[in-house]
Amino acid sequence: MQNFKVIPIITRYWRPGHPFIEEVCRTVSPILDDRDIVVFSEKALSVALGYTVDESNLPFSYVSLPLPNPGRLAEKLAETIKKETGKDVGVVIMDSDKVYRLGPLYLSVRSSAYHLYDFGFISYLTGRALKLRRWPTPVSAYNVKIGFEELLEILSECEKAMGEGAGLTVWDMAERFRVGVEEVTWEMLDSIEHKPLALVKLGAE
Known about the structure:
Strands 1, 2, 5, 6, 7, 8 and 9 form a seven-stranded mixed sheet that branches. A two-stranded antiparallel ribbon has the order 3-4. It is globular and about 45 Å long. The chain is built from seven helices and nine strands, in the order E-H-E-H-E-E-H-E-E-E-H-E-H-H-H-E. It has a single domain, classed as CATH 3.30.1330.100. It has helices at 20-28, 42-48, 70-85, 121-129, 148-162, 170-177, 186-190, and strands at 4-11, 37-41, 52-53, 63-64, 90-102, 105-108, 117-118, 134-142, 194-202. A hairpin with a 2-residue loop joins strand 5 (90-102) and strand 6.
């Protein structure tokens, strides 16, 4: 496997309707090269694009939904980045739900652009019970010219670099801010370091 370097990108917190792609292009442009891979968190994209279930317009009430056409979105993001920066990059949309390897098979809890065996919660139970090796799920990818196993290893490092933000769940958020679940505000989320994407430089030492 070739060497690579992961650079987490810090941005403002992406609220629904946030013009994130403009911010992304502006932020990464000085360090972007052809062949780089830009890895986006699906959850962050889902919230920014409004693919959520919301009851009260408060952070705790948002449940991000799977993107309806992640393959087309990855292509559109790559095209926009190329138009704005002049760089020909790959784009991957990553989900923290895990892919598990069982012998030659890769089990997943959700659908993916790659040939995974999507058995839903059964995949999760099997992976946890057998303590199978696991990686984040590559929901979709565009213009990414590396092998599947290499991509999984890269996404694992991206997930570590990007961190958990305010927490994996609303309860984690509330605990972080020492408030009740229904008391978490957008202003609180604005105050934390937000890393919804990472830049991967292939061949870097």
